[in-house]
Q: What sequence folds into this?
């Protein structure tokens, strides 16, 4: 069990644009954890309108305890995978 003092586990989900449906399916599987406050998911689909996408993305990436990359052929060939900082990739 995660101590309440640690707050929710912040998960940064990254995927290729073509794989957004897979990302949404993952969200459905984790919905109970999100609703109970144990997990907090973030992905680029949650970018605030008018925000600087690069800054907001890196802010959430830095705050994440877990980076979950939906590693598909689409992801490996996209620029998003190459843009992730080395610390997030291993």
A:
């Amino acid at each position: 069990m995660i101590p309440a003092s640690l707050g929710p586990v912040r998960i940064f989900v990254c995927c290729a644009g073509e794989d957004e449906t897979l990302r949404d399916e993952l969200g459905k599987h984790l919905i109970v954890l999100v609703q109970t406050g144990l997990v907090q998911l973030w992905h680029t689909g949650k970018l605030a309108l008018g925000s600087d996408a690069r800054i907001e993305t890196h802010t959430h990436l830095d705050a994440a305890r877990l980076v979950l990359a939906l590693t598909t052929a689409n992801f490996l060939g996209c620029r998003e995978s190459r843009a992730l900082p080395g610390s997030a990739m291993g």
Notes: The first helix runs from residue 20 to 29. Strands lie at 9-14, 39-42, 66-69. The longest strand covers residues 9-14. The helical segments are 20-29, 31-35, 53-63, 73-76, 79-83.
